[in-house]
Amino acid sequence: MRARVFRGVAGAVVLVGVLTAAAGGDGGSGDAQGRALAGRGGEIGNEHVRVGAEYWVTMPVQRNVTGEPLTVLRTRWVHVPRNVKVVRYGVVTVKETGGAVLGAVEPKDLRRDVGLTHVGAERPVEIPAHSETEAYVLALVKVTGPVRDHLSGYRVRYRQGAVEYRQDLDWEARLRPHPEDA
Questions:
Q1: Calpha distance 151→155 (Å, rounded)
Q2: Of 26, 10, 39, 61, which Cα lies nearest the Cα of 163?
Q3: How far is CA 109 from the centre of its chain?
Q4: pLDDT digits (tens, 9 = 90+) for 28-60
Q5: Distances (CA, A) of 156 to 6, 62, 72, 148, 175
Q6: Cα–Cα–Cα angle for 126, 129, 130, nearest 5°?
Q7: Is residue 53 classed as helix, strand or coil in its secondary structure?
Q8: CA dihedral over 120, 123, 126, 131, signed as positive or negative
């Protein structure tokens, strides 16, 4: 009985491996290397961050450059410097903010300047073919000590058709310490 179950499980594992390879998986992370998103590369920041404070750091609006729709599943910073902790990721719409907010802003300033009272939980975001998304990701970060480096690069995982992809793009958020915290 054990041998039969083991053979069945082993066969299923081989089948999954073959299907993943056929779908373009890279075998290591399970995701194929994507090229559907056009990164805008750039730099944002805040020149006066305070130790102990939290800031919403924006990530760019994504553009699908292919002829097929896709769904962004999650977005993460690739490099988070020492003394910066990502508390959570959230999603807001361009409509909610009256356009894309670029920078690293304190939650109270986001409410005051844009009227945004709540940043929703991260959720899948659809992007039609040859279009820009109507929503973008913010990362709530906490500064825990003097910051000497910056957040850089971001990784997007998305699904297009039946295949999940991973794509790394350029983007930097410089968090410079307030003179009193330098």
A1: 12
A2: 26
A3: 22
A4: 456 799 999 987 667 888 888 999 999 999 988
A5: 36, 10, 7, 25, 22
A6: 120
A7: coil
A8: positive
